[in-house]
């Protein structure tokens, strides 16, 4: 079947140059080569670098920008598509939850300019609050889902996604995972193709989703799904590797690499799309081999679809539904299925591993806030950000963490439940507050609850590696732009009690929090200090411990600062402490909490 | 093990360390050299939560055709550790019969290792010595790279020292290494990185003929024998003198004190008290005493 869309996959070009790229860089490159004009995203590991990479292309080529949240980002991309240009948005898996409201409707509308959503799942939960499988959303929204397995495919499939989007009048999801997004491998580069803009197409029956129009669109979706399945049946994004007749493996995405590492001689059908499935192709494959396994990360998405087709395949019986795959896990599954034999491995080394969980940085401005919060003995609703780490010892001062912006809404609920006797506190970062905290704060004022919101303003989206947001005064490209003033914003929604404190003044933090908790109604404290890593690395003069004065009380160790550790000296059965001068940035919090005045600036001579 | 011929064999280098040490820089340098030599390379890392201070790792695989982005357990030809305990964490990834373990012997003790508030408590940190581990692996190269780098005037180039040592385990030329390193490091530090690389290489060559400098082994922690702690303590609160100022409650490192409904001090969590005396010293009304007594038998 000769389909026009096929041409997007680059045939080997003699002139093609190769460059090592991460999956994320390749996804952005693919979009750029496809002629994308507008890209919008909210940062989220592991997807952040996609929009950052897109912003490195000239601004004449593409408007790449940070959005306040994923729904806004998706709406921006949809708007650009309406306007007739190719547009994309990128997000982490949980970002798609936020954007899903827009997605579920735009799938009925379809596209004008090609519209692509790049969604990065996080199997293994390296840096997320859950392990959801975004392919469920693809099926839910009835939009095609392409699954590249390496950086080259990331580029090729993204280009193809734009073509498919326009050809089939549908948004397209390109699904990545942490491993693909953060693996670097060689990629053949192509040229950017500029598209002629069609401009806005005036067509209310297509573009306005109200009941009458939606009723017409829904059956068209089902028709579209059938056409896409038919296309995928013959598309060369699938690879059928003929091999052993007894073992067939259907796989996709990075799982394909693990299968090739483990059992390269099997018959392998590598799918390029997980939705809709290339049903005829799969049926042919299953008929050509004796036993078929489906190897896919997370949910048995492809497996169940194939089972519904009435074909006998095995999958999650041997390969886990949780966690990230690896060659070892694929091998173990095949061993348990009796396909491979267990090798004789030497006994493992039995070292006791040193626990090294992630910690807040030395000098992190969130630290003092949580020291003070813990002293208040409140009921603390946490949120998403670096500061979620304050849920563990030694700061251990967050009671809950749900999703972006949940802290304030959760605090309202705790207050309305009427049982809590402790002060009710919501802690939320600056970027998270802009993302989803503002509607909740309005709700708190509107419903007149007695809560304290602590806005941990470190002037950046820190956890994802330091991205600008609407209150930093800079845009994605680093250019100056309008800056949201938090005090004005918070005051405008009706909060009567607002204070700003220096995060490095722990006494002021204690005192301000206490006053805020005593205020009846909504109070907001802005804890104010820049992140020590971004946008500039903060490094002040290091402090040192005057060891003879140290009484080993461990007050400073309660900060959990990575520059502080035990020295080899003891006081009354407890370790004295020492400061790593390389790591210390001189925030002085430890000196402020030291009751023995034994922490001083390194430069000062003590006699 | 894999029975591939040398020509098609994938070489696996696992690079590990602590966030901020330069694990990613080291693996990018290696990946670039492999690429220059016409190999297919995959370099895989995970970042996000592991910023400063967390455990960081990067898989580098190169060969004619590389599939998995991650190295299977027991198949790393080289395990390069920028920090001692991180090397030990990944030791099971080392190929047992022929793998090379290259590690800095310097310790970076995480705050998490120092949480135990019991008297006489030990750090939760590896107690193995370099000699022990070198004897356990097929090829062990344990050097004090941080000290070598410090002697060169910049402790941060310890990762380049280790690259020098790594270079003796791989096929690429010194010129290629130095070229790529100078492309990756800030211009001002090219010379010190060059020296660091050569020092690390020199150390490995000396190690082969037994003349290399032994790493300074961190002196084992001076431990308090259980028997040395001969006294018990008890917190005595004179509530009649307490005026509820809250100073002890806020300053107690173990957060074991509180104010009761009469706004007077009370010991909420006796099991957490370590007898550190901070409350005793800070109480303006002498309402708290830490009483020491010989341990009852």
Overall structural domain count of chain B:
2
Q: Averaged pLDDT of chain B, please? A: 88
Sheet with most strands of chain B = 6 strands, mixed
* Helix segment tally of chain B: 9
Alpha carbon gap, first and last residue of chain B: 58 Å
Q: What would you report as the Rg of chain B, rounded to the nearest angstrom?
A: 26 Å
Q: Return the structural class of chain B.
A: alpha/beta
**CATH fold group of the largest domain in chain B:** Pyruvate-ferredoxin Oxidoreductase, domain 3
Task: State the helicity of chain A in percent bands.
Answer: 25-40%
Helical residues, percent of chain B: 25-40%
**Strand portion of chain A:** 15-25%
Structural classification of chain A: alpha/beta
Number of separate helices of chain A: 19
The main pleated sheet of chain A reads as: 7 strands, mixed
CATH arch. level architecture of the largest domain in chain B: 3-Layer(aba) Sandwich
Oligomer: heterodimer
One letter per element, helices H and strands E, the order of chain B comes to: EHEEEHEHEHHHHEHEEHE
Give the tags.
heterodimer, A: about 600 residues, alpha/beta, 7-stranded mixed sheet, 5-stranded parallel sheet, 19 helices, disordered N terminus, B: about 300 residues, Pyruvate-ferredoxin Oxidoreductase, domain 3, Alpha-Beta Plaits, 2 domains, 6-stranded mixed sheet, two-stranded antiparallel ribbon, 9 helices
Describe the SSE topology.
The complex is a heterodimer of chains A (607) and B (297).
Chain A: E1 18-22, H1 23-33, E2 38-41, H2 48-54, E3 63-66, H3 70-82, E4 87-92, H4 93-109, E5 115-121, H5 135-141, E6 145-146, H6 151-168, E7 172-177, H7 178-181, E8 183-188, H8 204-207, H9 211-234, E9 239-241, E10 244-252, H10 255-262, E11 266-271, E12 273-275, H11 279-288, E13 291-295, H12 301-308, H13 327-336, H14 366-376, E14 379-381, H15 406-417, E15 424-429, H16 430-446, E16 452-457, H17 486-492, E17 497-502, H18 506-518, E18 523-528, E19 543-545, E20 564-571, E21 574-579, H19 589-593, E22 599-601
Parallel strand pairs in A: 2-3, 2-4, 4-5, 5-7, 6-7, 10-11, 10-13, 14-15, 15-16, 16-18, 17-18
Antiparallel strand pairs in A: 1-8, 6-12, 9-11, 19-22, 20-21
Helix pairs in contact in A: 1-2, 1-6, 3-4, 9-11, 10-13, 14-18, 15-16
Chain B: E1 11-18, H1 23-36, E2 40-45, E3 55-63, E4 78-81, H2 84-89, E5 100-104, H3 130-136, E6 139-143, H4 145-151, H5 158-167, H6 174-184, H7 190-208, E7 231-237, H8 247-251, E8 257-259, E9 265-267, H9 278-282, E10 288-294
Parallel strand pairs in B: 1-4, 4-5, 5-6
Antiparallel strand pairs in B: 1-3, 2-3, 7-10, 8-9
Helix pairs in contact in B: 1-6, 4-5, 5-7
């Amino acid at each position: 079947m000769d389909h026009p869309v096929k041409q997007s996959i680059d045939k080997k070009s003699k002139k093609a140059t190769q460059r090592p790229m991460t999956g994320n860089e390749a996804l952005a490159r693919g979009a750029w080569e496809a002629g994308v004009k507008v890209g919008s995203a909210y940062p989220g590991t592991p997807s952040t670098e996609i929009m950052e990479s897109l912003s490195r292309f000239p601004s004449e080529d593409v408007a790449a920008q940070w959005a306040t949240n994923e729904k806004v980002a998706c709406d921006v991309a949809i708007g650009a598509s309406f306007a007739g240009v190719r547009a994309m948005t990128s997000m982490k898996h949980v970002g798609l939850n936020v954007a899903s409201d827009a997605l579920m409707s735009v799938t009925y509308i379809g596209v004008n300019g090609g519209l692509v959503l790049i969604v990065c799942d996080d199997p293994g939960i390296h840096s997320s609050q859950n392990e959801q499988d975004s392919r469920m959303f693809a099926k839910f929204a009835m939009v095609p889902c392409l699954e590249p397995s390496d950086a080259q495919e990331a580029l090729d499939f993204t280009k193809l996604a734009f073509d498919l989007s326009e050809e089939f009048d549908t948004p397209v999801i390109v699904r990545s995972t942490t491993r693909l997004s953060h693996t670097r491998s060689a990629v053949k580069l192509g040229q950017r193709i500029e598209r002629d803009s069609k401009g806005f197409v005036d067509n209310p029956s297509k573009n306005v989703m109200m009941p009458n129009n939606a009723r017409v669109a829904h059956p068209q979706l089902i028709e579209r799904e059938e056409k896409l399945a038919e296309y995928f049946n013959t598309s060369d994004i699938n690879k059928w590797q003929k091999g052993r007749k007894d073992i067939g493996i259907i796989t996709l995405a990075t799982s394909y690499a693990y299968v090739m590492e483990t059992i390269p001689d099997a018959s392998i059908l590598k799918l390029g799309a997980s939705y809709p499935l290339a049903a005829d192709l799969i049926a042919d494959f299953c008929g050509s081999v004796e036993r078929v396994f489906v190897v896919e990360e997370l949910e048995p998405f492809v497996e169940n679809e194939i089972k519904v087709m009435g074909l006998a395949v095995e999958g999650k019986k041997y390969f886990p539904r949780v966690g990230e795959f690896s060659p070892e896990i694929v091998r173990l599954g095949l061993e348990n299925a009796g396909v491979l034999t267990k090798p004789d491995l030497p006994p493992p080394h039995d070292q006791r591993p040193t626990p090294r969980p992630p910690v807040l940085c030395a000098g992190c401005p969130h630290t003092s806030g949580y020291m003070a919060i813990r002293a208040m003995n409140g009921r603390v609703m946490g949120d998403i950000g670096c500061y979620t780490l304050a849920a563990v010892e030694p700061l251990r001062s967050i009671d809950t963490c749900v999703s972006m912006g949940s802290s304030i809404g959760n605090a309202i609920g705790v207050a309305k439940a009427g049982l809590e006797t402790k002060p009710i506190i919501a802690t939320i970062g600056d970027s998270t507050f802009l993302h989803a905290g503002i509607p909740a704060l309005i709700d708190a004022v509107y419903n007149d609850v007695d809560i304290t919101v602590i806005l941990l303003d470190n002037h950046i989206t820190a956890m994802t590696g330091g991205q600008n947001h609407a209150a930093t005064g800079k845009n994605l490209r680093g250019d100056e732009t309008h800056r949201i003033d938090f005090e004005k914003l918070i005051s405008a929604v009706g909060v009567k009690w607002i204070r700003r404190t220096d995060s490095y003044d722990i006494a002021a933090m204690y005192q301000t929090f206490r006053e805020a908790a005593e205020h009846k109604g909504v109070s907001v404290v802005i804890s104010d200090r820049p992140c020590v890593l971004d946008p500039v690395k903060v490094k002040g003069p290091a402090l040192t411990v005057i060891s003879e004065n140290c009484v080993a009380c461990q007050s400073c160790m309660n900060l959990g600062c990575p520059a502080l550790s035990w020295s080899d000296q003891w006081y009354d059965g407890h370790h004295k402490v020492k400061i790593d001068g390389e790591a210390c940035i001189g925030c002085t919090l430890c000196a402020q909490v030291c009751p023995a005045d034994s922490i001083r600036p390194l430069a000062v001579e003590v006699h | 093990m894999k029975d591939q011929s040398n020509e098609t064999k994938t070489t696996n280098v696992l690079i590990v360390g602590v966030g901020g040490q330069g694990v990613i820089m080291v693996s990018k340098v290696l990946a670039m050299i492999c690429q220059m030599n016409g190999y297919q390379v995959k370099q895989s890392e995970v970042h996000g939560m592991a910023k400063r201070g967390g455990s960081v790792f990067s898989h580098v695989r190169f060969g004619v055709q590389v599939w998995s982005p991650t190295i299977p357990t027991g198949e790393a030809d080289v395990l390069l550790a920028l920090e001692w305990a991180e090397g030990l964490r990944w030791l099971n990834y080392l190929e047992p019969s022929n793998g090379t373990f290259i590690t800095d012997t310097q310790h970076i003790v995480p705050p998490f290792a120092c949480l135990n508030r019991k008297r006489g408590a030990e750090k939760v940190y590896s107690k193995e010595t370099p000699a022990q581990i070198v004897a356990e692996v097929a090829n062990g190269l344990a050097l004090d790279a941080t000290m070598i780098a410090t002697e060169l005037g910049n402790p941060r180039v310890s990762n380049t020292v280790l690259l020098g040592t790594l270079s003796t385990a791989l096929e690429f030329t010194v010129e290629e290494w130095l070229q790529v390193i100078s492309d990756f490091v800030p211009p001002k530090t090219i010379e010190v990185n060059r020296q660091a690389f050569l020092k690390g290489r020199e150390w490995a060559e000396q190690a082969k003929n037994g003349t290399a400098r032994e790493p300074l082994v961190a002196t084992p922690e001076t431990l308090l024998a259980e028997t040395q702690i001969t006294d018990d303590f008890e917190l005595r609160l004179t509530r009649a003198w307490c005026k509820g100022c809250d100073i002890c409650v806020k300053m107690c490192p173990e957060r074991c004190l509180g104010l009761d409904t009469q706004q007077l001090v009370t010991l909420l969590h006796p099991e957490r008290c370590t007898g550190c005396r901070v409350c005793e010293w800070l109480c303006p009304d002498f309402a708290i005493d830490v009483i020491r007594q010989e341990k009852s038998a």
